[in-house]
Design brief:
The complex is a heterodimer. Chain A is an alpha/beta fold. Chain A is 41% helix and 24% strand. The longest helix of chain A has 16 residues. The radius of gyration of chain A is 18 Å and the shape is globular. Chain B has a single domain, classed as MetI-like fold (Orthogonal Bundle). In chain B, 78% of the residues lie in helices and 0% in strands. Chain B has 8 helices and no strands. In chain B, α1 packs antiparallel against α2. Chains A and B meet through α3, β6, α4 and α6 of A and α5 and α6 of B.
Chain lengths: 258, 221
């Protein structure tokens, strides 16, 4: 455990990678993000939890501007998020994203899914892109499925391909938007294991999830959101054993005791 | 029995129909795709133009559009589309009119196809850093085309039959010849039957083949 805390200080020293400053967003009358301040350091694994409708997914999606914000500032690696256009596309390539519903390109094979961004965005030549794609598919354990189409794979396999597709861009940070919520129970672990390995390898990760086990074992920090606000931020041990806010206590009592 | 066909180049007339159809099909596929891209694009001016174009053009009778190309573009404005020979000019004007008209329908068929592609596909494409045109070209349109093949087959069949409107500006296609034969011969019913059959021969395989292709290429989800 002491090692962990040392690692955390290293992390803080390595600099701020993702910074959100007083971010606000409305969906019509719903104030879905209220004055969000959040800083994520290089190499840090931050798990965002909270009841549904609390704004966690929206928060995750604002970081690569799949959702725009009404006010406030978001910066990645010191650069503020640009407007829609070439600059933003370039920045998105550096931010890997894994969706709840996988979103693999349905008309392309698994291998092509992992090669597309490398070839079209990174301008990697085809051979190198294929080698890298195969290596990544091997790393997430779906190398044998390379020539199949996404619909022929199980949910867990599809999600691991989606992780490989994001990793193929050599992202600075990975966003996971409820990556296991659409999976059958027996497939959740195969995806979590890949994510845990990624965390151990030092990837900066922001994970929106309901998997408390993952939060405990892999997170450096837990961010608890409710009603569009960050209610509590703490190390996982502290958060799960001794939450300070009533809202978090209430939430944990509902999910942990049955 | 078929002696009323003697002295008439029925096959030649249908060949002109086929040429009109194919050229207009390629043209309206290209222009219709661009219109669809404008209508789903992020630039308000282009979205507005796409919407305006489609809503205007598809509500104007094709005869009016074809006549306009001849009377308006050619006779009044002197646009000959690169030719002095009146038959060639008329043929090209007819293709232009057919493209202008049919592309509105191609655009809407494609747009309905685009709507069948889940939003997540485009989000995932944007998330790996593809720009708007790449998202459209590499991810959304290939899937949209596959689910639009059925509606596009309808448009193509309608286009094949719409080429007969080119008769209005004297293009020597099937309907022009039919009119000429009806005027000169007594066998009205056999003549009509021959031309009706000719169009069925052209359009029936279009529907069957494209239906088969559509099933074959359907994106599994």
């Amino acid at each position: 455990m002491t090692e962990v805390s040392v690692a955390k200080e290293d992390v803080a020293g390595a600099g701020e990678l993702v910074v959100l400053k007083s971010v606000n967003k409305h969906f019509g009358a719903l104030h879905v993000l209220q004055d969000i301040d959040l800083t994520i350091s290089r190499g840090e694994v931050v798990v965002v939890i909270g009841p549904s409708g609390s704004g966690k997914s929206t928060l995750c999606r604002t970081i690569n501007r799949l959702e725009t914000v009404d006010s406030g500032a978001i910066a990645i690696d010191g650069k503020p998020l640009p407007e829609e256009g070439k600059e933003l596309a370039r920045l998105r390539a550096d931010v890997g994203m894994v969706f709840q519903s996988f979103n693999l390109f349905a008309h392309k094979t698994v291998l092509e899914n992992v090669m597309l961004g490398q070839i079209k965005v990174r301008k990697t030549d085809k051979k190198a892109a294929e080698d890298k794609a195969r290596a990544l598919l091997d790393r997430v354990g779906v190398a044998t499925q390379a020539d199949k189409y996404p619909a022929q794979l199980s949910g867990g396999q599809q999600q691991r391909v989606a992780i490989a597709r994001a990793l193929a861009m050599d992202p600075k940070v990975m966003l996971f938007d409820e990556p296991t919520s659409a999976l059958d129970p027996e497939m959740i672990n195969e995806v979590l294991e890949v994510m845990q390995q990624l965390a151990r390898d030092g990837m900066t990760m922001i994970v929106v999830t309901h998997e408390m086990g993952f939060a405990r074992s892999a997170a450096n920090r837990v961010v608890f959101m409710a009603d569009g606000r960050i209610v509590e931020e703490a190390a996982p041990d502290q958060f799960f054993s001794n939450p300070r806010s009533d809202r978090a206590k209430d939430f944990l009592s509902k999910i942990l005791h049955h | 029995m078929f002696d009323f066909l003697e002295g008439y180049d029925v096959l030649g007339a249908f060949w002109t129909t086929v040429q009109l159809t194919l050229l207009a099909a390629v043209g309206s596929l290209v222009w219709g795709t661009l219109l669809a891209a404008m209508r789903v694009g992020p630039v308000p001016l282009m979205r507005g133009f796409g919407t305006f174009y489609v809503n205007t053009v598809r509500n104007i009778p094709l005869t009016v559009i074809i006549l306009f190309t001849s009377l308006g573009l050619h006779n009044t404005l002197g646009i000959g589309l690169g030719s002095q020979v009146i038959d060639t000019v008329n043929f090209r004007l007819a293709v232009l009119g057919l493209v202008a008209y049919t592309s509105a329908f191609v655009c809407e068929a494609l747009r309905s196809g685009i709507n069948t592609v889940p939003v997540g596909q485009a989000e995932a494409a944007r998330a790996i850093g593809l720009n708007f045109s790449q998202v459209l070209r590499l991810v959304v349109l290939p899937q949209a085309f596959r689910s639009s093949i059925g509606p596009l087959a309808n448009v193509l069949i309608a286009l094949t039959k719409n080429t007969t409107v080119a008769a209005a500006i004297g293009v020597a296609e099937a309907a022009t010849l039919m009119k000429e034969m009806v005027e000169n011969e007594a066998q009205l019913i056999p003549i009509s039957a021959v031309f009706a059959l000719g169009f069925v021969i052209l359009t029936l395989p279009t529907g069957l083949i494209l239906g088969w292709v559509g099933k074959k290429l359907a994106v599994k989800r």
